[in-house]
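User: Design a sequence. Structure:
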C-alpha cells in the first residue's frame, strides 16, 4: 500500500521543524522501518513552553464560533482522508486495519463533540442574597481557560486519544503541548496536520516528538505549565504526580478489568462480548477484560463457549481485512506477557488456550486456576490474556472483582435487574457495563477510574471542565431607588 506519511518534522507552535537527531518508527508486526521523527531536546521543550505561553493569549481570545469552526474543519479534513489516517494507525501501531478505521471514525466524532461542547461551556448566576447581609448583591460565575496544557499520550490509540486531548483543550481556549508515544508519533503529527489545515492560529498547538528521558521532566516540572493530561501506566503516573508540583492533573492509568457472568446470563452473548473485550487490539487496551468471574452452575458451559469463540480469532497481517488480532507494540512487551503467563503456570495456573509467542505476536490466551500470588492476577498485563475463575454467587464475584488496586470499568452479564443494580452500586470502578464487557466507551461519556486507575475524568465535556477554571463575579448594586 502506497502512503504519504506526514512524519519527519515536529510542530513547534505552528512551524514544522526538523532536527539532526532522529527517532526511527518501526512497524511492530515485522520491524520494518516506516519513518523518522525529530528527537527533541531539553532546549526544544523549553522553547515549546515559551511558545505555548504566547499561544495561550491567542487561544483565549478566539471566539467560541472560531473554536467551533476550527474543530469542525479539522474533523472534516480527517474524514476526507479517512483511509489514509486509518492505514497510518495500522502501520505504526498495534491495530488491524478494521480496528484502525473504527478509531479514525471515533477521532472525527471526538473533534465534532468538542466543537459542540465549546458552545456549552457556560456558567450560571448566583443568588448572593441567600445569605444575610448580602441584599443588593448580584453575581455569577463563568469558566476561563486554564492556560498551558501538556498532554502525554500512549501508543494503543494513537489518533483518538490525541483527539481527546487536543479537542477539549482547543474548545476551552487553551494552548496545548502534545508529547505522543515514541512508538507511534506519526498519527499525532497527522492530526496536527488537520489543525494546521483548519486554520488554528500558530503557537496554540505544539506536537513535540522526543524521548521522555530527554524532555519529560522539563514539560512536567515547569511552573509555566498549568495542567498535565496523561494517559499511560500507573508507575509513570505516580512519578509524574511527584514531579509536577502544584498544577492540575488528569490521569487515566490503566486497569485490570473484571467481568461477572451470572447463572441467568445469556451465555452465548456473554462469551462473544467477553472474547471481544479481552482480545481486541491484542489486549492492549485499558478497558480490556482480564478477570472473568463465572457462577459455578454455568462455569463449565460458559468456559466451553468462550474457548470456542477464542479459537475462531484469526492472527495475521494488520492490513489484511481477514485479521482479528495483530501484534504487541514491541518484542519487549510480548516477552513481558510471556513471562507473566509462565510465572502463573509455575505457580499452579493452567493454560486453556493460547500461551504461545512468535516475536511480537502472542496468541489469545485464557488461563484457569491462577493464584493471587501470580503477578498477572493483580496487575495490568496489557496483552491478550484473560483469566477464568468460578465463584459461588454474586457477592463473592463483586468482592473478588474489587480486590485489586485498579477500578476503571467492569462488566456484568445477567437478566436480573436487582443483580445489575447491586453490581452497579457495589463495584469499585468508574463505569459498570450491564450485559457488555468492560470494553465499552463512547466519546461523550465521563471516562476514568478510581484507586490506581487514575484521577479525574476524560470525555469531551468533562475534560473541558478540568481544562478550565471558575471565576466568580459579584456586583454590589446601589440601594438608592
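Assistant: Done.
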Amino acid at each position: 500500500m502506497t502512503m504519504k506519511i506526514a512524519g519527519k518534522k515536529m510542530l513547534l507552535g505552528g512551524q514544522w521543524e526538523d532536527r539532526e537527531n532522529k527517532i526511527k518508527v518501526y512497524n511492530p508486526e515485522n520491524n520494518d522501518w516506516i519513518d523518522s521523527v525529530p528527537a527533541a531536546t531539553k532546549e526544544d521543550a523549553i522553547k515549546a513552553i515559551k511558545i505555548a505561553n504566547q499561544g495561550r493569549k491567542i487561544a483565549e481570545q478566539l471566539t467560541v464560533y472560531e473554536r467551533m469552526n476550527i474543530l469542525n474543519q479539522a474533523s472534516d479534513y480527517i474524514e476526507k482522508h479517512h483511509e489514509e489516517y486509518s492505514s497510518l494507525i495500522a502501520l505504526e501501531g498495534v491495530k488491524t486495519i478494521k480496528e484502525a478505521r473504527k478509531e479514525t471514525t471515533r477521532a472525527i466524532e471526538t473533534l465534532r463533540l468538542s466543537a459542540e461542547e465549546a458552545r456549552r461551556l457556560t456558567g450560571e448566576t448566583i443568588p448572593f442574597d441567600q445569605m444575610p447581609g448580602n441584599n443588593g448583591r448580584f453575581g455569577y460565575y463563568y469558566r476561563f481557560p486554564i492556560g498551558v496544557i501538556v498532554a502525554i499520550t500512549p501508543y494503543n490509540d494513537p489518533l483518538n486519544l490525541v483527539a481527546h486531548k487536543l479537542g477539549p483543550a482547543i474548545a476551552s481556549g487553551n494552548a496545548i503541548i502534545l508529547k505522543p508515544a515514541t512508538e507511534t508519533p506519526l498519527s499525532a503529527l497527522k492530526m496536527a496536520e488537520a489543525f494546521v489545515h483548519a486554520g488554528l492560529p500558530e503557537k496554540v498547538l505544539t506536537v513535540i516528538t522526543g524521548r521522555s528521558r530527554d524532555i519529560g521532566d522539563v514539560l512536567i516540572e515547569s511552573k509555566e505549565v498549568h495542567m498535565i493530561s496523561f494517559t499511560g501506566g500507573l508507575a509513570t503516573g505516580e512519578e509524574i504526580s511527584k514531579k509536577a508540583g502544584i498544577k492540575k492533573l488528569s490521569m487515566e492509568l490503566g486497569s485490570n478489568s473484571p467481568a461477572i457472568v451470572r447463572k441467568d446470563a445469556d451465555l452465548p452473548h456473554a462469551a462473544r462480548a467477553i472474547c471481544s473485550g479481552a482480545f481486541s487490539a491484542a489486549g492492549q487496551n485499558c478497558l480490556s477484560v482480564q478477570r472473568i468471574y463465572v457462577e459455578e452452575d454455568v462455569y463449565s458451559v460458559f468456559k466451553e463457549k468462550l474457548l470456542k469463540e477464542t479459537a475462531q480469532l484469526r492472527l495475521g497481517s494488520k492490513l489484511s481485512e481477514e485479521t482479528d488480532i495483530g501484534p504487541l507494540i514491541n518484542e519487549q512487551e510480548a516477552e513481558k506477557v510471556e513471562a507473566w503467563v509462565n510465572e502463573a503456570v509455575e505457580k499452579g495456573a493452567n493454560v486453556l488456550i493460547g500461551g504461545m509467542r512468535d516475536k511480537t505476536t502472542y496468541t489469545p490466551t485464557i488461563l484457569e486456576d491462577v493464584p493471587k500470588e501470580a503477578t498477572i492476577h493483580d496487575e495490568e498485563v496489557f496483552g491478550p490474556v484473560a483469566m477464568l475463575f468460578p465463584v459461588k454467587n454474586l457477592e463473592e464475584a463483586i468482592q473478588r472483582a474489587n480486590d485489586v488496586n485498579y477500578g476503571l470499568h467492569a462488566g456484568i452479564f445477567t437478566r436480573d435487574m436487582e443483580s445489575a443494580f447491586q453490581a452497579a452500586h457495589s463495584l469499585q470502578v468508574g463505569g459498570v457495563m450491564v450485559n457488555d464487557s468492560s470494553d465499552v466507551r463512547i466519546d461523550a461519556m465521563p471516562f476514568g477510574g478510581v484507586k490506581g486507575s487514575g484521577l479525574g475524568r476524560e470525555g469531551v465535556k468533562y475534560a473541558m471542565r478540568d481544562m478550565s477554571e471558575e471565576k466568580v463575579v459579584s456586583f454590589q448594586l446601589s440601594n438608592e431607588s
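The first strand starts at residue 10 and ends at 12. The domain at 257-442 is CATH 3.40.309.10 (Aldehyde Dehydrogenase; Chain A, domain 2).
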